[in-house]
Amino acid sequence: MGNALGLSTGTLSKEMRLLIAFLAEDHNPNDLPESQPELFRETDWEIFIELARHHRVYPYLYGRLKPMNEIWVPTWVVRTMHDLYTKNTFQMLHLSGEMEQVGKLFAEHDIDCLFLKGPVIAKDLYGDISLRTSCDLDLILSIEDLSKAEEILLQQGYLKDDYIRTVLNDWKWRHHHIVFFHSGKGIKVELHWRLNPAPSKEPAFPDLWKRRRTSSLTKHPIYYLGREDLFLFLVSHGARHGWSRIRWLLDIKQLLLQPLTAPKLIALLRKHHYYYIGGQALALTSSLLSVSIDSQLQPMESTSKSRRLAQEALFYLERMVNLHSPPIPPEVESYHKRHQFALLTFSRKFLFVLSFLFPYPEDAETLPLPKSLHFLYVPLRPILWAWRKTIGGQG
């Protein structure tokens, strides 16, 4: 199985191809059995549901399955999707209320923030918060406001996940968010001071704030990214995770249905070294979800590098990869490292390699020094790395 862009999708399972076909269909889904009858023969519907859950597209998928004749889609499958859809709707309403409360609290303390995902994006991209899943609230603010925002969340009963270890303040660029969890509300909040971890070149927060949009979802003003900034964030986030959940491509499809300013978008992606990652997203979305690409964006989509990166991303769709749930299978981990490096431009590859020379928290654990002497970890880094390799095989 191939397509006009030259992507080979024949390695995808029948159930995965059926899932994609439903997501790509924008008219009458009952036409699918006639146009692609082979996808409905001997379908393993348990696997189909498992894929829908893994890729987190079941709310959107439910609307596609609901009008289907039971000859093609068993009633119990539609009923399962309905139950998942209903549960997600309540979850999104719950998150919407908390999003408004957090946004209001931050505004009262003069903290500018932009919500990156969650209900605000569901409303913007799908027109209905029930059609997209979200498990937490992500927002970005200036690093200068981070401590004040953290204090506010702690006062509201959130607990901080202190998973970040740091030396010489490397957390500011090696990481990009901190996590808080409220056990009573069952809600996780991620405070971002960067869109992505290093090495990445990205718009500064004041620029993002200047181009912000206001959501109509809540009574109190909630702000989120401008369209071109949202495209940059979504493609960088999706690529960083290998597009291992097709929901991220569905987001791109929905965003492309909105009026993007192509020259402005291209300039933004080139400036921040995401041109080919943007092309990868366009190639995947066009190929898998049958999206028509604006003529001004087609050169970005059709470059050989964009197509190669798109083809490589199919590795993740051939299997249910969850990069957030270790242990990751060795072959997946190895492939992911190579693919992530391939995504980088030459200058970002150089910075990535250079970053290994900067001290890691492990260096401080290997040779504890007083904080006043932490600068010595810079020249000692190669020695400490070699020592760990020798005694335990860790870098």
UniProtKB/TrEMBL annotation:
<protein>
    <submittedName>
        <fullName>Renal dipeptidase</fullName>
    </submittedName>
</protein>
<dbReference type="Pfam" id="PF14907">
    <property type="entry name" value="NTP_transf_5"/>
</dbReference>
<dbReference type="InterPro" id="IPR039498">
    <property type="entry name" value="NTP_transf_5"/>
</dbReference>
